[in-house]
Design a protein that fits this description.
314 residues; alpha/beta; Rossmann fold; 6-stranded parallel sheet; two-stranded parallel sheet; 10 helices; 12 strands; 42% helix; globular
């Protein structure tokens, strides 16, 4: 019998990119009731709306995915709102969950919590070894605060909250918006437009030498549910693949899968963030048996196929 079969679970951000995968996996796990609050009805930066949500839902578990988030450009343009919205949402959601007797709180943080100048792969014990990357640091610090809250509330109140740090996500149904998309959907859209319009080249930000780690969103959802069921400590845990890929290699993969025949031009005047970024994922496997299943080539093919099916290729 599924752990979730008799649970009511609130999934904040349940209508978002990762949220849909989490909700789908909860449904497959025969979760008794899944509540996905919409921003039009509940403003999660307002305490009164959080209290109303909790009183209405009578949940056993909260999985907190809702976030103000975006790519490098969005982080540059919205540092204040990204910091405030993410910090206030999380702080109040956890505080009210404890006060109202909700059994467990799962905070989904981000790899952006990590300091800029630490060795790779990132290990959880290095989380406080410095300040995050300047571009994404406002968002990262806002999420990082919630790991402190989790530990503090467990120590003083015995409250069961956990803190997970996924790496960069991608997959079908990703955000392809020009102003807020992350690197993989942004590249897919750029190559699709270039191919559709017979453009001779595609311009990409930076040098391509920076590296990242990418996790298929459905794999991430699996990790979140395993941790929700099996993990009961406030020690932060990485959720990723442990596999590093350069942006240049990623770009070539997308170009090849999409069959684009033009050239790639790198604009080194544009920012590219940290030089290297990927995680040590051994604790997730040790603590709750999680290991990502989808490799980057398979995941890109699925994501590109979804994009081409759901757009006019432009």
């Amino acid at each position: 019998m599924s752990y979730f079969h008799d649970k009511t679970v609130i999934v904040t951000g349940g209508a978002g990119f990762l949220g849909r995968y989490v909700v789908n996996r909860l449904s497959k796990a025969e979760c008794k009731r899944i509540v996905t609050p919409r921003s039009s009805e509940f403003n999660l930066t307002k305490e009164t709306d959080i209290v109303r949500l909790y009183e209405t839902a009578k949940a056993d578990i909260v999985i907190h995915l809702a976030a103000s988030v975006g790519g490098i450009g969005a982080n540059q343009d919205n540092p204040g709102s990204f910091f405030y919205n993410n910090a206030v949402m999380g702080l109040q959601l956890i505080n009210q969950a404890r006060q109202m007797g909700i059994e467990k709180f799962v905070t989904v943080g981000t790899i952006c919590c990590y300091p800029k100048n630490i060795a790779v792969p990132y290990k959880e014990e290095d989380l406080w070894e410095g300040y995050p990357d300047e571009i994404t640091g406002y968002y990262g610090i806002a999420k990082k605060i919630l790991s402190v809250q989790s530990a503090a509330y467990r120590k003083e109140y015995g409250y069961n909250s956990i803190f997970l740090m996924p790496t960069n996500l991608y997959g079908p149904n990703d955000n392809f918006d020009d102003d807020s998309s992350h690197v993989i959907p942004a590249l897919i859209k750029r190559f699709a437009q270039a191919k559709h319009n017979d453009m001779p080249s595609v311009v990409c930000w930076g040098t391509g030498e920076a590296s990242r780690e990418f996790l298929y969103a459905d794999d991430c959802a699996e990790g979140i549910l395993l941790a929700t069921e099996l993990y009961n400590s406030s020690e932060p845990v990485n959720i990723g693949t442990g596999v590093e890929v350069t942006i240049k290699a990623l770009t070539e993969k997308i170009k090849d899968i999409m069959g684009y025949k033009g050239s790639i031009v790198w604009d080194s005047t544009k920012p590219e963030g940290q030089k290297r970024r990927y995680m040590d994922v051994s604790k997730a496997e040790q603590y709750f048996g999680y290991k990502a299943k989808t490799d980057i080539d398979e995941g890109l093919k699925e994501t590109i196929s979804w994009y081409m099916m759901h757009t006019d290729g432009n």
